[in-house]
Amino acid sequence: MQPLPTLNLRDHVSAEEWQLRLDLAACYRLVEHHRWGDLIYTHLSARLPGTEHYLVNAFGLTFDEVTASNLVKVDLQGNILNDTPFQINPAGFTIHSAIHQVRPDAHCVIHLHTKETIAVASQQQGLLALSQYSLFSLPSLAYHRYEGLAVNQEEKTRLQADLGLNNHMLLVNHGGLTVGPTVGDAFMRFYDLQRACEIQLAIQASGQPAIPIAQAIVDNIRQQAKVVHSGSTGGQLAWPAMLRKAYRLDASFAQ
After folding, report:
1. Is 175 helix (H, G, I), strand (E, B) or coil?
2. Contact between 218 and 139 (Cβ < 8 Å)
3. Is residue 95 left, alpha or beta, with left meaning phi > 0 and alpha meaning psi from -120 to 50?
4. What number of other Cβ atoms are within 10 A of residue 249's Cβ?
């Protein structure tokens, strides 16, 4: 077995880029910790501030092998921009490039194939207002119909139109997706979406009638969330704790 190439970019990139690399690599490790990964597939991407350059995982690495230094820098066409022995999965980057192209606010895009998001995305009614977690996604939730593997460039325009200005998406028969202005915001949005799907499936599996949440409460959740977060976003509040957790789990992501 060949060992992974040892890279250390800390002294070769700006402090801003290094911090983004740390955040994104930590996010990959947290996804692995929560068992949301899919072998070497699915992706988390982040835009380098003030550029049209993006960081994404190297193709062929499991999420617990991702480090700040082995993240690959690419442009919207998937061209590799930094000196690296690694490649990316161009088909996997199709969805991310489509969103980054039209959503300048979406600095981070998370797309995962968890069984719970696939299951709920594949139900006729999609995500239902059955738990508090569902309320964090429903006011900003979009759907995209399945068109096969994401290799068709023409699908990108339909994906962009379906997402619109929403921050959560269920890709029918496929999985979940969230975007955010920071890695932390995208992560916390996916956490909420994932939990909402888990709870919905648990309620449905119980065989007991569900008690739906009133639409008036759904409509008011954004205002309530502002009070809970004291004007900050969920990512701003929770991400420092998540980053500390990533260091406790395995600090090798920071290499």
Report:
1. strand
2. yes
3. alpha
4. 15
3-state SS class at 119: helix
Backbone angles phi, psi at 123, to 5 degrees: -85, 145
pLDDT attached to residue 226: 53
Residue 98 φ/ψ region, left for φ over 0, alpha for ψ in the -120 to 50 degree band, beta for the rest: alpha
pLDDT of 230 reads 43
pLDDT of residue 216: 87
160 touches 102 (CB < 8 A): yes
* Side-chain-facing half-sphere of 77: CA atoms under 13 Å: 2
What is the DSSP code (8-state) at residue 208?
A: S
Beta bridge mates, 171:
144, 175
- Cβ atoms of 10 and 68 within 8 Å: the answer is yes
Superfamily per CATH, domain 10-254: Class II aldolase/adducin N-terminal domain (3.40.225.10)
> Which pLDDT score is estimated for 1?
59
pLDDT of residue 150: 65
Q: What is the DSSP string of 87-116?
A: ---HHHHHHHHHHHHH-TT--EEEEE--HH
Task: State the greatest distance between any 2 C-alpha atoms of the chain, in Å, as a whole number.
Answer: 58
pTM attached to this predicted model: 0.90
Q: How far is CA 5 from the centre of its chain?
A: 26
Give the chain's residues under pLDDT 50. 227, 229-230
List CB contacts of 16: < 8 A, sequence separation 6 or more.
Answer: 48, 49
